[in-house]
Amino acid sequence: MDKFKTVLNIFQKQQATFSFGAVALLTAGGEQIFSTVVFRCPCSSMNFTYGNVFLTVPALVLLLLGYILSNKTWKLFTGACTNNSKVCRKEKLCSFIKVITQITLNAVVAPASWIAVALLNGSYYECAMTGFNSTSYKKQVCVGKSEVCLKDLHKLPCGKSSMSPSDSEDVLLIIRAQSQMLGWLVITSIAALALLLSCVARCRSPVSYLQLMFWRAYTKSENDLFESATNEHAKKLAERNLSSFFELKQPTPIVTPDKKAWEKVSGLYKFSNTDHYYSILHKYVETCKDVNRVSVKSESGGFGNPSVLSFVDDGKAMF
Predict the structure, then answer these.
(1) Hey, CA dihedral for 159, 161, 167, 170, is it positive or negative?
(2) Membrane-crossing residues (predicted)?
(3) pTM (2 decimals)?
């Protein structure tokens, strides 16, 4: 595992900014389990397909899980097909694409980690490229070797080739070196892209550094308290209803928000320079005028936020 420490350190150092260190760590651990327990190169004409499936399909699954586990995904899609908003289609589509892009940037960390660690390991790439049906590639890795190398290249991962042990090891070393170079290229690209996006997001931040820290702390506290209050209020309502049902008595009054109120606090937050609200719930509480708390006007624009504020609607994923 020593050869993966550098990769994990890169992602762990980004945890303060992206909170992705734990995701990258779990992904790297999962790749180790797959490569040692599940993966078995067939050493046949299926090598190329089999190796690429293990290299790319788990990454695709992790990407889809990233979308599924994102709270912002469900805030964006829940009720979207019944939304009666009069926002112009072009503006709505642009806002939709902007939010999807932010979700994707969060979700892509796990699949990128999988691919980077898998390439450094080299097992999947080695299996795939020994089955790559390209004469020029085979000649490249078999340079200086006998014709048996071209014929038995697909058998090398299983040690069944007719080549001498030293020639087999030389060819495998070339393929592993290619894999590891690609792995470091992926890691460097991820680190450079993360730094670039962070710099651009911070440069275009509408708030100062200290206010951004406060905003993050507020958002985390609101999400935690909201979940706790939701569970407690739901429990009280359930207990009241059960008590009324089994004891055959009139239910005691318990006030809960109506449908319009839930709709207004369930949307995606839109930043505005003209107010000082830290979330959609904060805005709702501050701008409601009547007792029933349903008079706050709906936002007339889209729901895109500056990239530096993408954490506002993340919260905890609930289904």
Answers:
(1) negative
(2) 50-69, 99-120, 181-201
(3) 0.79
